[in-house]
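Morning. Coffee machine broken again, so started the prediction first thing and wrote up yesterday's gels while waiting. Chain of 883 residues, entered below exactly as on the submission form.
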Amino acid sequence: MKKNDTHFIDRYVITGILLSLFLYNPIKSESNGQLVDFDYQNTSLKTALDSLIDSHQVAIIYQDRHLEGKRISAKCAECTMEAALNTLFLGHGLKWKHKGKQYIVIAKAKSGIKREFILKGVVRDKLSGEPILYANVHIQNTHFGDITNQEGYFYIPTSIDSGSVNISYIGYEPITVPIFFSEATDSLYVIELFPKVIRSEGVTVTGDNMEFFSQPMKTGQISFSPKHIASLPKLGETDIFRTLKLLPGIQIGNIGSAGLYIRGGTPDQNLILLDGMSVYQTDHFYGFFSAINSEAVKDIQIYKGGFPAKYGGRISSVIEMTGRQGNTKKRRLSFYSNFLTAGLTYEEPLFGRGSLFMTYRSSYSDYYRTFLFDNIYNFLTDGEGQNSLVISSESSDYNPQLSFYDFNGKITFMPNDHNILSISFFTGNDDIERLYNFPQDTAITYLDGIQDASRWKNQSGSVKWSRIWGNNFYSHILLSKSNYSSNSFYQSRYLGDLEYTVDISDDNTLDDFTLRFDNEWSLSLFHDIEFGISRKVLNTKYELKFQDNESEIEKYRANVSSIYFQDRWQILSNAEIIWGWRFSKYDLNNKLFVEPRTSFKYHLSKYLTLKGSLDNYTQFIHRFSNNYMIGGKKYVWLLSNDNLKPSDSRQINLGLRYDDRNLNSEVTIFYRDFQKISSFSFIQFPTDSYKSNYNRLNGDNVHLGTGKSKGLEILIQKKRGSIRGWVSYSFGISEQRFPDSGFNRGVVFPANHDRTHEMKSVITSTYNNWDFSLFWIFSSGSVFTPQGMQYFSEDVYPYAILPDSSASLNSQRLPIIHRIDVSIIRHIRIMSVDWEFGLSVFNLFDQKNISHKKYITLDNTKIVSTDVEMLGFTPTFFVRLTI
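Came back before lunch.
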């Protein structure tokens, strides 16, 4: 520390239970002769000090008059001597000074006025110099503490003048530092933490084990570190979003989709931010992988509910990712490759006060195809992921071509300890080409072939300036620009007497320009205020061209102006309430939307906490997707208007958490009520949603309905020992209803993403230079509609297969899903280069799990459904080297 002023049935269930029993293994205590352990109950302070002197052979000098009549009840586990003394003296008007090898006990100066002292500082990575976000900073044996912000800063007002400060974060060795707060008020402390797993410069330090996530005291929040996710089982690519699905409350879903389904919400209802930039295209490779490169991300905060007032515009959850700044102490270059992609990362210190970070990755399947690509390819050709074909048969010949790349860059400059300027950039690109051939002797005698292609792209940038003002005020200004674009073409060749061709092309763009000003003000010991303003300008354009006709264009522009206020109020020493309001003006309908936010936590004991939240959220943008979509393009972004109204939700969460040094467990119940959610299932084109009382199928252009989601989550996490990990269980019901339409006859039906039960477990271990991990999932299958229908029209799309709306939608469920994945990594150092060699196996026991149903056409009119299996036994090898 420096002081500087300026994450069957028979044998399969049994297997899962056995895999989970590790959580109950006892943990052996660790001994360290340099550390202090005690538990005094109503003991005289003099007796306690004498015991320390005798048992640890330490010189503690005191005067009897200072200890007279003082009795203590205190605990300390693996404390330094300094921390032990602070614990013993807390509340007794005593302090100590270290002189040579002696600790001298002295009385504090008396004062008739109770003073407030300030501890402020920044927490950084000891090796790279990067700030550590959302670290816990807590004054031992008190309720005074803080969590570092996005720049690593913390601020703690306290009424005691000395104490021991605990600093911790997932993946780092926690430390305890004695500090005299009366002397620290005008200083900015720089606290550096060592990673728990260090493999560099020929040195291996593994600490207890790798860590992935923690659950802060705030309702619904998960802090996730992607530092070691490469060690977890993977399907080829190290994938952030797929890894997040291992966490409690986030649905595993279909393997063909990287989208996040959180507590009954859908992927388009998640606010996904990277360095303040909104990410609208969230996946690559036809939905198999997330669009965010794990190499580019330092920290992830997941808010499953109860998210702060500063976040708005979505009704399900928030995924806030902070990009890596890069190493501020030395240059680093890394290369990595697997059976699907390859990439590199470069880090460079800048002028001793900043850093440059860049990372690039790309698929190489357009040059060379591995067996892993073939497995994914076969899955797509058999079932095309989760997307239905416009038309298909048993003998259809389907050939997709897939490729993608992305690039992340960040420049950070710190002119002094109070100011940080950062510039971030992100771009990603996907190209998909598909060719369907229909032999004339098949069931579809009228169609010769379909060819289509699509390209979608993200391109985003942001500039952020952060500053600490004085002792208790922090601000940052963010300017960001995000662009999503997609363009597609579709061509179908029809047989018969006329023998004609249908050509369609479309383009969609979304521009998001955002200006935000956010502030944090630690007003007193009992109130921390957050407030800010934002202005978001959204521009959407959709252009459709059919044959040689004139293009059909829809353009919309909307402004969303928001202000928010939030107060963290410490009402009792063991109770806290966070309350706030968010006000948003949406100019397309000229309405003001009010979103109250309230959460609480109550410490029932040292290890047991009750917490909950009640919140309202509003969403002004919608993602259009249905079975008509062309070119593999899965969605189009549309703005709310008079027909397509803004969606809103109300959420209630209540949880009970137990947390000690070895075990973290939590039980949470939740309820979500969604209003004005949209269904585009029977609309052919996005432009139809903007037209009153017009639809190419049934005369009703927009279906607006309601949804409900409720459930229970249970988590048990083992935090210490040579084997650690977690097991979680989720019970959930997600339902929707569209009362003013013929959709399912206007009655309630299970949502497409409804899964009643989901149990999963992750086990990790580290031994010398080896990393081991295992993932197990046991889940309900997806719901599906057993009947289909063939729709014929002389409009743009002559044929399409849709679920029969007169049937009971999603009335049946696929069989149970069960799977085990494993991974092993070896770390070695050869000629001053750090190497990682890894093997990961997806679906170790080759379980035949059903992904979804696919409808096909027989004899031109008959519709039948077939099962699409998930990937079976799929190994993949990966390598990484760092210079």
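Residues 1-33, 199-208, 384-390, 695-699 have pLDDT under 50 and may be disordered. Going to sketch it on the whiteboard this afternoon.
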